Amino acid sequence: IRKLFTDGLVSFTGYCSMKKEQVVNCQFSVWYPIFKKHTIKSLILPLPQNVIDYLLDDGTLVVSGRYQNTNTHERTHRWSDDETTTTVTAPEFPEFTSKVLEAINNLGGRVFPKLNWSAPRDANWIALNSSLQCRSLSDIFLLFKSSDFITHDLTQPFLQCSDQDSPDPVINYELVLRKWSELIPGGEFRCFVKENKLIAISQRDYTQYYQHILKQEEQISQAIQDFFSQHIQYNFLDEDFVFDVYRDSQGRVWLIDLNPFGEVTDSLLFTWGELTSGEVAEQQEGPAFRYTTSEVTVQPSPCLSYRIPRDFVDLSTGEDAYKLIDFLKLKKSQQEESEEEEEEEQENAPQ
Asked: What are the subcellular locations of this protein (predicted)?
């Protein structure tokens, strides 16, 4: 049974007894204040209920450009053909939009968006440049409404927890905006911690072969171990957890994310059976380090299966042709805005 969480795909095997409290502790707003000095600058905004309702609405995707802060809460779009005229109202959230735009500007004008746990990594295909980089609320909405990962956050965050008989904790949903950073996929690694001991490290983007990892295996592993012992170990709320790091070109390690130690988190080049049985920890003194060793083992991205949008499925079955109209109009609007920005940059460039 394939499940979703954070930014990976996983198979339910029943190895881990993950509790709802562990999921709660891995919310961004819980761990970010603890490790703020060792991660990317971010801002957190409460997500209004009307925005949550909009994100969960499976109807037509309608957004209104860059959501300028106006006194109008809705904007109407009309499309007609020879026989019918259809009016669709685009929701607007002036107060929330103003806060989001202010936050984006404070973070340099470009951000990486996510919710309490997940980023919309399964939806980058729909973005203008196949990137999760966002400059406006409409960019964020387009990604969020196209993402199964985001829907999972909003509807089933405790789906695989072992304590299903206990009531679900109350979740205050938040929009997390992270300052945009150009991270090279070959520098990302996932680390598995059991009983506050680092037992395993996996190449994050295991679908690709990166020669520098093979050449710098010992340096990378040692840098991550040092980072863990100096900044992470015994400082998190749980003793079993998974954390993602990025090692930059200068060799500095940065914390990127924290995830529950359980099947909801992708185990990448390990299996949850190995990680929970003690097999990995017993094989060697330090953490096991696995990475793609040659181009022969390169695999397709696990997110490829999400690149057929649900809206297009509706289109192919004739259920909602206006979804395609909305999508094309939004893409056209984004393209025009991008061209306008380029023209302004050229006009303001020094002669």
From this structure: Cytoplasm
Secondary structure of residue 158 in the 3-state scheme:
coil
Identify the DSSP state of 169.
P
- Please, what is the average pLDDT of the chain? 82
Sorted by sequence, the CB contacts under 8 Å of residue 49 that are 6+ apart come out as: none
Cβ pair 142, 65 in contact under 8 A: no
Judge residue 148's burial from the number of C-beta atoms within 10 Å of its C-beta, 0-12 exposed, 13-18 middle, 19 or more buried: middle
CA distance 244 to 102: 28
Euclidean distance between CA atoms 147 and 247, whole angstroms: 27
Q: Which residues, 6 or more positions from 87, have their beta carbon under 8 angstroms from its beta carbon? A: 76, 77, 78
Q: How many residues does the chain have?
A: 351
Query: Residue 319 pLDDT more than 70?
Result: no
Tell me the C-alpha distance between 19 and 167, whole Å.
12
What does the alpha-carbon distance between residue 327 and residue 313 come to, in Å, rounded to a whole number? 13
Q: Are 90 and 83 in contact (CB under 8 A)?
A: no
Per-residue pLDDT tens digits for 21-73: 999 999 999 999 999 999 999 999 999 999 999 999 876 566 554 433 333 34
CA quadruple 6, 175, 74, 110: dihedral, nearest 10: -90
pTM: 0.76
Task: Centre a 10 Å sphere on the Cβ of residue 51 and count the other Cβ atoms it contains.
Answer: 21
**Does residue 25 come out as left (phi exceeding 0), alpha (psi in the -120 to 50 range) or beta?**
alpha
3-class state of residue 82 by DSSP? coil
> What is the phi-psi region of residue 158: left when phi exceeds 0, alpha when psi lies from -120 to 50, beta otherwise?
alpha
Q: In what order do the strands lie in the sheet with 111-114?
A: 42-46, 174-179, 111-114
Note whether 20 and 168 are within 8 A (CB).
yes
State whether the Cα torsion 69-72-74-77 is positive or negative.
negative
Q: Quick check: 235 and 19 in contact, CB under 8 A? A: no
Calculate mean pLDDT across residues 305-333. 56
What residue spans define the domains of the chain? 310-348
Give me the mean pLDDT over the 167-195 stretch: 96
Instruction: Flag whether pLDDT at 318 surpasses 50.
Output: no
